[in-house]
Here is the input.
Amino acid sequence: MFLLAKLTLVGLLGQFCLAQMNSLEGVRIHEHPDHTRVVFDTRSRADYRHFLLTNPNRFVVDLSDTKPNAKLESEKVDSRVVAGIRRAQRKNGVYRVVLDLKRTVNPREPFVLMPVRPYGHRLVIDLYWDSSEQKRGVQAAPFENRDVVVAIDAGHGGEDPGAIGVNKVLEKNVVLSIARGVKRHLDTATGFKALLVRDGDYYIALRKRPQWAREKRADFFLSIHADAFKSSSVSGASVYALSQKRATSETARWLVENENRSDLLGGVGEKVVLTDYDDSVAEILLDMSMDANLGHSIDAGETVLAALSDVAQLHKGQLEQAGFVVLKSPDVPSILVETGYISNPSEARLLATSKYQQRIARAIADGVQEYMRRNPPPGSLIAVIGDSKTIRHLVKRGDTLSEIALRYDVSAAAIRHANRLHGNVIKTGEVLIIPRLGQES
Here is the structure.
């Protein structure tokens, strides 16, 4: 009887230890321009060791006290670096995962990420490779008659899906499609060249996005999103410029909190710092530069918002300001476009369609072109050829007809004539056609 009880106790202890073991829930792969990211999803924080083997090239990860999830399936590998994934249970509770590699890699030190919705624990492995093709940057255009360079940032990507809407529409996919559409329209316009910050399903740290644009000598930075709000009734497109103080609405504050936490979702192997700068002198100098640049961003944002009003419902009839990390560039005019709310069922269904995505893309591209033609960078081709395009002005609260006329250096009478106004009364949210100098009637 005693022996039976002892055996039963041993069996129960064995089952308890087995239940306490970590488990490998899944393996995912994301392709970046210069590296491949492999993500292990685990039930609890991974205890691991790793090593690299050659002839043939392999990257090996041993997970301690780990077993595979019963539902874990064999991974389908479609990667420029990883040829296949092999798994095996070894002695002492070690579960080995072998990444068979197609090429020589220079892996970074793996790192673990704590749970953040919608993910649990993750072990992240970044496999970098040397490639002269990847190291080649965009060649700087000649100073005279050069193209205006617009950097287009599709939000989220890779580990960070962004907002998830009706029928599991992912924000990261919607905004990448729109970003590619904006690029197509800009590239066909004389005097413009568009660059995609992200051109695939991978994540880039928030602060690296405007930094990348500066390295490419961009004249303009555009970040595209399609976010969510806690209320499904919220809808409409919005455009934001940087606010160094506080957001201009509750919705803006909510969006800032969600967008600025993307580094936790996307997986950045370093401490995520969302405050500005520690050195007070550097902060003052940077703020001075940002203040000088902010006016350009606001003007650009208002122009893009006016263009969007032709094709989309607007969330508000005016530009908003908020502290998005991606907008904190000291010397490049930067705006963030919320193309709509995936949390709104009707808008989510619209944003999921290619036709609507391309309508939004064209409107954004038109707005960017209109602003840049009015404010051409020195030495650019558009500064030489001028602008014969129509200017549109989105009326915001506090605007008067005389102030708008003074801003664009035209007469109030010309604006009234172009818009068939019978007086000086204008309404917030309406779009006014501004005649070009010399085209006044």
